[in-house]
Structure formats: structure tokens, C-alpha cells
Design brief:
The complex is a heterotrimer of chains A (about 325), B (about 260) and C (about 280).
Chain A: E1 7-16, E2 24-34, E3 39-44, H1 50-57, E4 65-70, E5 73-74, H2 79-83, E6 86-89, H3 101-111, H4 116-129, H5 145-156, E7 163-167, H6 175-190, E8 194-199, H7 202-208, E9 211-216, E10 219-224, H8 226-233, E11 237-242, H9 245-256, E12 261-264, E13 269-273, H10 276-285, E14 292-297, H11 300-308
Parallel strand pairs in A: 3-8, 3-9, 6-7, 7-8
Antiparallel strand pairs in A: 1-2, 1-4, 4-5, 9-10, 11-13, 11-14, 12-13
Chain B: H1 11-23, H2 27-54, H3 66-95, H4 100-105, H5 111-139, H6 145-170, H7 176-193, H8 205-211, H9 215-228, H10 233-262
Helix pairs in contact in B: 1-5, 2-3, 2-5, 3-5, 3-6, 3-7, 3-9, 5-6, 5-10, 6-9, 6-10, 9-10
Chain C: H1 22-37, H2 39-63, H3 79-110, H4 113-117, H5 124-152, H6 164-185, H7 192-205, H8 217-224, H9 227-239, H10 248-273
Helix pairs in contact in C: 1-5, 2-3, 2-5, 3-5, 3-6, 3-9, 5-6, 6-9, 6-10, 9-10
Classes of the chains: A alpha/beta (about 325), B mainly alpha (about 260), C mainly alpha (about 280).
Chain lengths: ~325, ~260, ~280
Amino acid sequence: MPPQPLVTARRLRKVYGKPGAREFTAVDGIDFEVRRGEAFGLLGANGAGKSSTMRMIACVSPVSGGDLTILGRDAATDGPAIRARLGVVPQDDTVDTELTVRENLLIYGRYFGLSKVEVRRRAAELLEFARLTEKADESVGALSGGMRRRLTIARALVNSPDIVLLDEPTTGLDPQARHLLWERLFQLKREGVTLLLTTHYMDEAEQLCDRLVVMDSGRIVAEGAPAELISRYTTREVVELRLTDGDRATYGDELRSLVARFEDLADRLLLYTDDGEDVLSRAHATGARPITALVRRSTLEDVFLTLTGRSLVD
Amino acid sequence: MPERTVTGAAPALRELGYWLHRYRRIWRGTVVISVANPLLFLTALGAGLGKLINTRTAAALHGTPYLHFVLPGLLAAAAMQTTYVEAAGPVLQSVRTRGNYRAAATTPLDPTDILYGHLLFILLRVTMTGAMFALVGAAFGTVGATRALLLAPCTTLIGLAFATPVAAWAVTVSRPASLTMMMRFAILPLYMFSGTFFPTTGLPGPLRDLAEATPLWHGVELCRSLALGTATAAATAVHVGYLAAMAAVGLWAARRSYRRVLHA
Amino acid sequence: MTAAVDLPTPTLSGRPPARSGGARAMVLRNVMIYRHTWPLLAAEVFEPVLYLVSFGIGIGALVGHVPGTAGTGEGAVRYPQFVAPALLATAAMNGAMNETTFNMFGKLRTDRTYESILTTPMTVWDVALGETCWALLRGALVTAGFLLVVLALGLVGSAWALLVLPSALLIGFAFASLGLLVVTLLRNWQDFQLIQLVMLPMFLFATTFYPLGVYPRPVQLLVECLPLYQSIELLRQPFLGQVGPALLVPAAYLLVFGTASLAVALRRLETTLRG
């Protein structure tokens, strides 16, 4: 018998506003499962329905339709019991600015009904984990963005959760802070914690996620491991060419005929192929003189743009 | 690119424009409050407390009906309070949370332009509040219409005397709680003891000297002597001089602290 | 370098039942904050003391004895004695209501404190009850501090004045609940002006500074409906040594007023916080 998934969503829907005129469907009947110990990603542009899905899983926003089972319990009826086993890292750091770093952890632990002794021990461990021990007694106002985010993550771990929900965990952080955060998340994963995260950084999704779904307008448009998605929705490699306007007019059609899939962007041409070097040499053979030419591996970003389009969604 | 010429209003007026633009959304509420506030105080104190006091004909009032006595006091105190509310919180927010000062400081506006523009707005608000207070007073018949006209510029002067030091201080404050503390421990005591509700002659010696050295007392006396027709040239000069000096020192301090905070 | 955090392997069964810190954890959070900002509480005692000294002594000199109260001449009620219980009631009201309106609004809208609290097993009921209890506690502390000042000034004429403490808790409950209801109706900080517009006249007209007798009868009836008037009655009668079944009227009024406000507030909070 396969192990029971930790999260199961069936025809899950979220509708805001009053039925009728002002109704808005943010999540439109999605199905997915999150298995124990995996890092599961929700990808999508702004407004795709990621955050609404996360809020339903966190049991802070009622389900409008379909079924949502978390840790074997129904999200619609067992909110407090489920929340007791979750750790939530919201998109904005809603840390308590009136308290010190340590007090934030202490009081959060008390919300879970942990005893004073237990929560003290736990806070000390988590301060160490988040590398905040030296800042323990400082006001939250004195923390940098990266430190605040680590505090929010430490806070989410105070109840030793089974699942940690992270909504865009590294948005707005500098590269050092991002890498430190990734390292901490890897450590959690090694220790068997299930991670469920949203992101719009494709490198982050490739780095962290075992499996992911791509959402667009409240629906799931693709599901699988990052490598799987790349092989399914795009070629192995991409050739990027920048040409002068003259070359572009002269050789455009000929270059297009070299590959099965081709994209004409404002500043460059993209040639999708399984053998980049071969296509590049044939491109040179046409007589075109690119200003720059680049052969690179396809990334999740190519998958994402293929699936959800290049136009700006707001 | 053609050289951009600075046209239009003087720089400080552009900052004033910012505040007027914001004010357009909330002016109705402030007008209601400016009228309701004196109306309620005068009704409650006149109809209620006035009856208790007049029955004994308190000697300290020299035969003046209590309502006539208290109106100019309330007016001066309201001028101070409005100034504090308009200067302290908005200045702090402009530097910290809302950040409109910081945004303005990246434009050709100078920190002193920002200061002057905001001060102009505060003075406008205080004068409006004062004028409406005086109008309500005149409607109650507690002050003659001509004398009521004299009271509005007095509130402008009181506003300037308080707005400059308050802005100088508020621009450096980081915690909103400090504003509450200042309100409770400085503004409120001034409100209660500067001759607003009762003559300072009723206070014990040293407390009386202290009360009569405060800026609000000078403001109250200025308004009261004009409203009751007891003003003398010498006393008026002292009151006006005191408030003007305070405004000048405050302005100097505010220019300094605005420059330090905004162009650090 | 980094100590490993012990994170148990997830299991679906055999978990301890879901617990939550409940209202107690909410109160604890406030106590933690007040360890940093206790001077604010002292300031809240300072405010009514100022009013008392200013009105009681300054205006008291103009007024003398209060007509319409028991006795005249030497036996009559001195003005500071008349004003003190009214200011006590007002302090209890402000202490409780500031907490559930002003402070809670910040936590509800700007800081979004409750949003992160509600991701834990804590329920909206826990939050509301916790904040109300804290407001009560705070109101009681302020009242107790003010009572000490009144005592030191020699204005307490009867041992019945001790009834002030439980009464202040009841007043605190009524206004903390009212505040909880009001905070769900507020849209922005400008709306606080509207609260002032209601609270200031209530403060001025609810027999704080002069007896009910100065009004004509129809106005008296209106004033008697005000929750602050009932609060003042609850304190003033025992303060002046008049204790009898008449006290049950304001007590019952405040109890019903508070319970009704709380019930409506809870329903509204649930929809505000769980969208």
C-alpha cells in the first residue's frame, strides 16, 4: 500500500466576494498531492492562485469547493488540529515588531500551548538554527531583511511541524541571504520535514523542489519533477542570438527553418534544439553575423514562459 | 535633453500643495470636528458647570459669566492641541512610515522648503479651527463679532509658536509612543493648568508662577484680554513678544533638525 | 556551528490532541510588551489625576459645594469628591476601550499581528477573549493606581469606596467589548475622529462635572441611557457612601451592554479575520 499523502486536494476551489456580480474565482478546481518528506512547489505568475491555495492549506481561509485533506484531516472542519501540526512562513514577515527576537519565538510557542520550559529550550535551539543567537535580545526592528526572514522561519518551526508552508521565501533578499536560507531549508528537508513552497524564482524551484505544479489563472497547467517538465515542455538546449536589424531581416526566415521551435523576441531570437552546438554552426553557415551568440541548457524558466506566455500578468 | 527649468510655485508652496491634496480627502471630518468641539464644550460647560459657578458668583472671575471667561481659554488651548496633533504625528509619519519627506528630499526641494510648506499647512489648519471656534463663541453670544475676528490671528500665532518646536522635535523621533508621552506629560498639563478653565490666581504660589511662565498661559491671556476687552498695550506686547520669540527659536531649531534628518 | 533541530518524523496517528495557548497566551503577549512599555500605563494614571487636580481643585474653588446632592453647608459633597468617582469611571472606560480600539486596530490592519497568530491553533475566540481580558486587566490597574491617588488626596469618605475595584472591572468589560465591536467597523485611522466625536460629548454630558439635576427632565432621560452615565453612577454612589439595591441597575445595564457587544463583535471578527 503506498503511503498516504500528507496533503490531498480534489477539485479544490476558492471564490472571493459575494456570489453574483462581484464574484472572483482565484482557484478553479485543482487536484494535487503532497507526499511525505518531499519539497513541493507551486509556481505561477502573480494572481495565478498560489497564495490562495497556500492560505487554504494553512487553514486560515475557508475552502469554497472540493475537498482538502491535510494530515488525514478535513481542512474544512479540523482547522485548529491541522494548524497545530503546520509551520507557516507568510509572504510578508509578520513578526511582532513590539517584541525582541527571542520573545517572538517564546510567545509564538505559547500560542501552540507549549509549556514555558519546553518553549524556552526550543527557542534557544531555533535561534541557533536561524543564526540569530547574537541578536536574541534585540528588537525586531534592528534586523536586516534576511534576518527577519530567518526569524519568521524559526518561528514557523517552534511547534516541530510536519509540514512547513513557505510563501515566496526569498523574495527581496540579497544573494547571500538567499543562499543561507536555501541551506537551512535543505537541512530541514534532510531531517524529514515536508516543504510546500510558492516562488516565482525558477532557479529556486529547480534547486529546492522535488516536484512542482505550474498554475495559471487558478488552474494547474503542468505537474512533475523539474527535469521531467523541462524534457516534456521544451528542448534540451536553447540557442540565443542577438542580430543587427539588417541581419535579422535578411536571415530571419532561414534561421527559423533550422529548428522546430523558434521565438522572435524584441531583443533576440531563441532557437530551441536538443543539440545547441550543431544549430549554432548551421546558423553561422547561413551567413548571419550575430552580435552575441549563446548556447545554454533549457531551464524551468523556459518551461514556465512556454506554459504561461510572455505577456505581463497583473 | 532640454534643460529643465523650475517653473510654477515657490518650492515651499509645492510642499504645501502635497498637504492640501491629502487634505481634500478628509476635510469634511475635520470641519465637523472643529465646529462640534467648541459647540459641545460650550454647551456642557455653559449649561452645566456655568450654572454651578454662577450661583456662587465666584470672586475670582470679577463678575464675568463663566462661559465668557472660559471661551477664549478653550480657544487658545484648542489652537495648541490642533497644532500638536497636526505637527507631531504627521511629521513623524512623513519621515518614517509614509516617507513623503524622504521622497520630497530627493527632488529639488530643500529641507527648509519641506519644513516651510508643512508649517504653512499646519497654520492654515490651526487658523481654520480657531476661526470656527470664535464663530461658535460669537453665536453663543459669549464674545462680540468684532472681537471674535481678532481671535483668529491669535490662534495663528499660538500655532506658529508651538508648531516650530514640535516639528523640530518630531522629525527626530523614531517611536510613535514618544508622541503619546509628550501629549500626556506636556500638552495635557498645559491644557489643564494654563488658565484655560480657571484663573491661575487660584493656584498656590510657586505653581501659579510656573503656570504663568508657560506659553499657553500667554496665549490664553492674549485671547482672553482681547475677548473681554481688558487688553492693555503693554501686556499684549509681552504676550505677543513671548510667543513670537518662541516661534523664532523653534524655527531655528526646526531648520537645523530638518536638514540633519533629511540631508544626513 | 549549527545545532541540529530535533524534528520528529511525521506521523498521522497517535498525535497528542491539538492544543492552543488560548486566551492566556494572548494576555501573555501583552504582558511581554508591557514589560518594555510600562511607562505608558503610568501615563494613563497621570491623565485622570491631572483632570482631578485641575477640575477638583481649580474649578472646585469656583464651585464650592455641589447643589442637589445630600445636605448643604458643612455636610454637603465637596466638588473634588463629586468629580473623583466620575474620573475613575472615565479612566476605566478609556483604559479598556483604548486597548480594544486603538491598539487592536493597529494589530488588525497595519501590523497584521493576528494574521500570524491565526496560523497557529489559536482561534478567533481565543484572540478576542484574550484581548478583552487584557483590556480589563489594564483598566483595573489604571483604576487601582488612580484610587490610590484619590485616597492620598483625602477624598475618600467611605469604606464602600473599595467597591470601586470590582465595579471598575465591570465597566472595563462593558467598554472593552464595545471597543471590540467598534474596531470591526473602522475602515482607517481617520475613522478614529468619529469615535472622538461620540466619546467627547459623552464624557462632557454624563454628569462628570455636574449633577444630573441641572438638565431638564427629557435631557435627563437621554443622559441616563449613556453607558458612561451608568458607569459613573456605579462608582459615585458607593464613593459617597450610598449603597443600596439601586446599584443593581447600573450593574445590570453594564453586564447586558457588555455581553451584547461582545456577542456581535465575535461574529463580526470571525468574518473579518477568516476571509
